[in-house]
Known about the structure:
By secondary structure, the protein is of the alpha+beta class. Helices cover 15% and strands 31% of the residues. It has a seven-stranded mixed β-sheet, with no helix packed on it. A six-stranded mixed β-sheet has the order 12-11-10-22-23-24, with no helix packed on it. 48% of the residues are buried. The site of fe (ii) ion has 6 residues, from loops.
Amino acid sequence: MKKNLTLFVLVLLMISSQLMANTRFYRLSYRDDPSTTIVIGWCDNGTSTNARVYYGTTDLGTNAAAYPFSHGIDTTTSYVSLTNHFARITGLTANTKYYFVVKDDQGVSARYSFKTITDDPNSTISFIAGGDSRTLAPFGIGETGTCTGGDCRIIRQSGNTLVSKIRPDFVAFSGDFILTSIITSYWSDWFTDWQLTYGPDADGGLIVPFMTAMGNHEVNADIVNLFDITNSNDYYALSFGGNLFRFYSLNVTADGANVCTDTTQLNWFTNDLNNYTGTSSEPVWKICQYHTPMAPHAETTPNQYMIDCWADLFRPKKVNLCIEGHSHVLKYTWPIVPSSAVGSDNGFIRDDVNGTVYIGEGAWGAPVRPLYTTYNTTAAYNWTRNQASTDGFHLICVTKSKIEIRTVKFDVVTAVGQVGPNDPECTLPANLSIWSPSNGAVVEILNPSLGMTEQQNLVMKVDVFPVPAKDIVTLNVKEKLTGATIEVYSGTGKLVKTEVADIADSYELSVKDLNAGTYFIFIKAAGFSESHKIIVE
Ligand SMILES: [Fe+2]
C-alpha cells in the first residue's frame, strides 16, 4: 500500500512538472550556417529561471537529463508583451535530425525536433516561400478580403497546417506577418497560429526554421527581437547545401526607395554578390526574397527604384530567382532582365539565358486583391507567365540541375496527406492543391551551365542548326522577324557577338570567329524573344 502511494505521488509529481512548463511559441531561425547551427526561440511567462535547451540525435522524449547536450539562453528580448528567449546552438552535424526540450525551474517543455540542412550541393533542398499573413480587411487598393467577416486568420491557419503536412527544409517568409506590432496581441495570435506548422508527434514534433524578411507592416525591431536574426537592419544572406544556393533576405520599404538610398544595404548586397560570383565560393544558384515587389501584379506598376538599383545587378551577378510579397496575389514571370529595347515592356524584357524569374506576391492569408490588369489593361505585361488573385505559397525544390517551383493553394487542407521523415526530399503529400495556370503548374529554372535554358512548355519558333557547328549556324524562322537582334553569349554569360537583321525565312550566323565551346544565342524582336544553345567546334 505504502509502495503504491509512493508511486502515485511520484507520478503526480511528474505530471505536475509537465503541467508547470510555461514555455510556448517555439520558433527556429538562423544566424549562421544552416547545416551546423540553429537558433531556438521560445516565450515563457517572464518569471522562469535557469532555462536550458537539452538536445541530441536520439528521441529521449521529455527526459531532459538524458539528452547528451545542453545549451543555455544567449539572449532574451521583452517585446510586444512577450518574453522571448533564444539559444544559439552551434557545432551541429549537417543533414541530421535533433530532438530537444527546454527545461527551466517551472518544468519541461514538450519534446520537439528540427533537422539541419544538408551540406552536400548534390542533394535536394526544399523550402516554402510566402508572406503576407496579416489579418483584417480592407486596407489596400481593391482589398475586399475573401475571408468570412474580413478576418483572414483562418486562411493563415490553413497555410500553416499545410507547412506541417509538406514538411519542407525551411520557410522563407517575405514580410507582413501581422497588421501592426502596436497591437501586441497580433503577434501572440501569429505565434499561436505558427504552432500549427509543428510536425506530428511521430515525427518528433518537427519545427521548420525561418528565413525572414521585413514587410511594411513591421518595424526593424520586430524581426530582430522575435527571430534573433544577425542584422538589426533586417537584411542577411546564408548559403544552403554547401554551395548549392545563396539565399538573400533583403529589406525594402513600401515605396522601394530605400533600395537606392540605403547605401549600407546596397554596398553589402553588391559586395556579397561579388564575393559569390566568379569565385571559388560561387553557388549554383542565387535566390532573393524581399517584401515590396519589383514586378508587381496588383495595385501598381513595376518599381523603377528597384529596377535601377537591384535588377541591373541581377543579370551580371546571375541572380536566378526572386521571391516578392506585399500585393496579395499569385504571379510567375518568365526570366526577365531590365531593358527599354524593342520587345521590352514596362522596364523588362524576357531573357531565357540571363533572366531572373520573379514569383510572389504574398498571399499567406492577407486579404487577396484584384489583379492590376482589372483596372489597367496596359499592365498585361508580355513577360508575365501567369497571375491569379487567390491565396497560396510557393513550394520550391532546389537541385544542382534545376529549381522547380509549384504554388500550393489553401483551398484543400484536411484531405492533404502527411509527408513523413523517411520520404525523399520534395515529396508532395497526397491531395495537395497545386495552382495549375495556362503556362504550366511547374516552373522550372534549368541550370544554364548544364545547357538547359529552355523553359518547360515553351514552343520554339526558331530552329537553330547544326549542333555542333563549325563555321555557320543557320536560324530558320516560322514567322518573319523584323529588326531582330541576335546576341551570342559565351557559356559564362559574356556577350561576344551582336547582329541585327530582318529574318524572313532563314539567317546564316557566322561563328568562324568564335573559339570552340558552348554558346547561347538570344534572338529578340518586337514581342518576341527566344534562346538556344549552340556548340562551336
Ligand atoms: Fe506589404
